[in-house]
Amino acid sequence: MANLIVTGGAGFIGANFVRHWRKISPNDGIVVLDALTYAGNPANIADVSNITLVEGDICDTALVSQLLADHAIDTIVHFAAESHVDRSITGPDAFVTTNVVGTHSLLKAAKTAWLDKGTGMPHRFHHVSTDEVYGTLEADDPAFSETTPYAPNSPYSASKAGSDHLVRAYQHTYGLETTTSNCSNNYGPYQFPEKLIPLFTLNALSGRKLPIYGDGMNVRDWLHVEDHCVGIERILRDGRVGETYNVGGGQELPNIEVIREICRGVDAAFAQNPGLADRFPDAPAAQGRSSEELMTYVEDRKGHDRRYAIDETKIRGELGYAPARNFPQGFAETLHWYLNNENWWQPLIERANINR
After folding, report:
1. Quick check: 330 and 162 in contact, CB under 8 A?
2. Catalytic position from the list 156, 187, 245, 338
3. What is the pLDDT of residues 133-185, one digit of tens each?
4. Which helix (H) or strand (E) holds 65?
5. 76 - beta bridge partners?
6. 303-313 as b/e, with b when 16 or more CB fall inside 10 Å?
7. How many angstroms separate the CA atoms of 214 and 216, rounded?
8. Which residues contact 46 (CB under 8 A, 6 or more apart)?
9. Is 336 a domain residue?
10. Domain-embedded: residue 27
11. NAD(P)-binding domain location, by residue (predicted)?
12. Residue 299 known to be catalytic
């Protein structure tokens, strides 16, 4: 039996991980530490049994230390982060504070609890990071591997690179038992509707424009969040201390193709279920038209990386990880979830006044 702190466990990936871990390890203790900022939502984990939700900041080292002691924590799974690139361009300070200073706060508390006090207890600090730390690829470049040099190009990716280096330093300098994973673009249930897939799905349902940066040919590797959680589980159980593992979905697609898949999926859903036209009357699909008519090209984002791709040879070979879904399968599941959970996403849109 393990006792976990999951930072950011009320956010998108963190909440899916909490759900996954509770399903596979029903007797483990789980403490969710989340600041409940705009992207953190207690509703994401409200129906998960036997967890403790603590509203708090990872920068509060004293709080983290108290939680480690009170709950006999032996595992930290660190998701908490500012993660939206557009927000990092307009307001980078929060990204440095949460992603760099916050990660250091957790590392300090973990070192004190697990090493300095001489308990000698087995432990693990797992840090969840991003493929964006590696920079950008040209069309013919090999995919990112764990040995690709870091070259972050946005304030977001730079802050995540800094946190990765701190985790590595605490392992090499102090002997803290750490692992790190760098993942590709996640999608799936409970994703806050500012990211591409939920944003464009909900825009298509409401008849709003689908704004495409530049020429739409920026390429990303797409990873269903539940496959990502399986990858993290494998690392926690069998990953080697001090190692980094890239976790990808094996679905390298240009943004324009992802957007077309969203449009095709929405149109097909309306064709199969005429009742959707009553729920979403402003959708082009409600009038038998194509959602693609909402596509519009806009000025490219500053510093927009052209291509990301993940080489997941290491995690496949060492830990037997493989994603279970291709993108059409994963998006079909995701669309079904959003169509059946309007009561989850509608209040978020109204409260956050998301610019769609």
Report:
1. no
2. 156
3. 999 999 999 999 999 999 999 999 999 999 999 999 999 999 999 999 999 99
4. helix 61-70
5. 5, 125
6. eebebbbbbbe
7. 6
8. none
9. no
10. yes
11. 5-333
12. no
pTM of the entire predicted model: 0.95
Instruction: Answer yes or no: is 355 within a domain.
Output: no
Domain, as residue range, for 314? 3-192+223-251+308-325
CATH code, 188: 3.40.50.720
Catalytic residue among 132, 194, 252, 261: 132
Sheet holding 219-224, edge to edge: 185-187, 219-224, 252-254
Tokens standing for residue 87: 């927000």
What pLDDT shows up at residue 252? 96
Kindly list the distances between the CA atom of residue 277 and the CA atoms of 61, 287, 341, in Å, as whole numbers in the listed order: 51, 8, 16
267: in domain: no
If you search the block for the tokens 């990765």, which residue do you land on?
164
Rounded CA separation 278/71 (Å): 49
Catalytic residue among 34, 57, 82, 131: 131
Q: Work out the average pLDDT over 281-309.
A: 94
CA separation for the pair 116, 157 (Å, rounded):
31
For the stretch 204-230, pLDDT in tens is 999 999 999 999 999 999 999 999 999
Residue 245: active-site member = no
131 counts as catalytic: yes
- Asked if residue 127 lies in contact with residue 183, where contact means CB atoms within 8 angstroms, the answer is no
- H-assigned helices in 71-154: 85-90, 93-95, 102-111
CA distance 4 to 62: 17
Count of domains for the chain: 1
